[in-house]
Write a structure and sequence with these properties.
By secondary structure, the chain is of the alpha+beta class. It contains ten helices and nine strands. Helix content is 44%, strand content 25%. The radius of gyration is 32 Å and the shape is elongated. 20% of the residues are buried.
Length: 285
């Protein structure tokens, strides 16, 4: 299986964000004051200091149930001191002087993991909490979203098999094309290098991803990408249209080239055309 995973890694079309790269990017796009505020919200909920959080809740969203909501939310978070509180996702939308920031944090405890999402709305110096969510994870996101074959179903194996077979098929047809005497060979080579359409599979959830209205091409017909070190892997395959058409038309293409070469050879063997003098006309006499 190591060979399989290595092949898929080589076929990846987009860089996968490493942990350091992702954290640097999140730090760059997240306003520091919003990050500090969200961490304070998580800390206050975890320790039961609800008053500062309740003052920040948007009552138009939470209504009068904020005081009852926060204790219930605390039940989803380990009350002990976390080993780490890690920013793993950020969505920042700016509209004039208004900013909406959605932040996701992974909390690591000695024997458990949690995810807490805090959504803030900022206008000038004022900020309100417009979204709160917390839930327990079965393991760290890195482990949950790891590319592993353990416990995978039929659809995973089918897409994985296609992800290996398609580039091998495309490479084989490419070699066959290079070895064949056909016209416009360089155009066929370009055609054979890319697969068309894209069917993706979320490797963690097993959900298919497909948009029939989008035009997608993939080098060698297979790609495996993820947004960051803790996001799910997306394995995608494309149809090797060029390879299929080439195999169906290969004999005809070779025959066409052979006929053309024979015609050129026959013309060369006949030599340059001889111009015979035209018969005299009455004007000439």
């Amino acid at each position: 299986m190591r060979t399989v995973l290595t092949l898929l890694a080589v076929l990846s079309l987009a860089g996968c964000g490493s942990k350091q790269t992702t954290q640097a990017f999140l730090k760059r796009i997240t306003p520091p004051q919003d990050d500090r505020l969200a961490r304070d919200v998580i800390q206050n909920i975890r320790t039961g200091n609800f008053a500062p959080v309740a003052k920040m809740l948007d009552r138009r969203i939470f209504g009068n149930q904020a005081e009852q909501l926060l204790p219930k939310l605390r039940e989803y978070i380990d009350p002990n001191e976390p080993k780490t509180v890690e920013l793993v996702g950020a969505n920042v939308q700016t509209m004039g002087d208004r900013r909406v920031v959605g932040l996701r944090y992974q909390l690591e405890f000695p024997s458990s993991w949690y995810m807490v999402e805090v959504t803030l709305r900022a206008m000038g110096t004022s900020r309100q909490v417009i979204g709160l969510r917390a839930y327990r994870l079965t393991a760290s996101l890195e482990e949950i979203n790891a590319f592993t074959l353990r416990g995978k179903g039929l659809r995973h194996w089918l897409v994985l098999s296609a992800g290996i077979a398609i580039p091998l098929f495309m490479v084989a047809t490419l070699i066959l094309c290079i070895a064949s005497r056909i016209r416009l060979k360089w155009l066929w080579i370009l055609f054979l290098l890319f697969g068309f359409g894209k069917l993706g599979l979320n490797w963690t959830s097993g959900q298919f991803l497909f948009n029939p209205l989008s035009l997608n091409v993939q080098l060698l017909g297979t790609g495996i990408v993820r947004g960051s070190w803790c996001d799910p892997w997306i394995l995608s395959v494309s149809v090797p249209v060029g390879g299929i058409i080439f195999l169906l038309r290969r004999k005809a293409l070779i025959a066409s080239r052979a006929r053309r070469d024979a015609a050129v050879a026959a013309a060369a063997a006949a030599g340059p055309p001889v111009l015979s003098p035209s018969p005299p006309t009455e004007d000439d006499t």
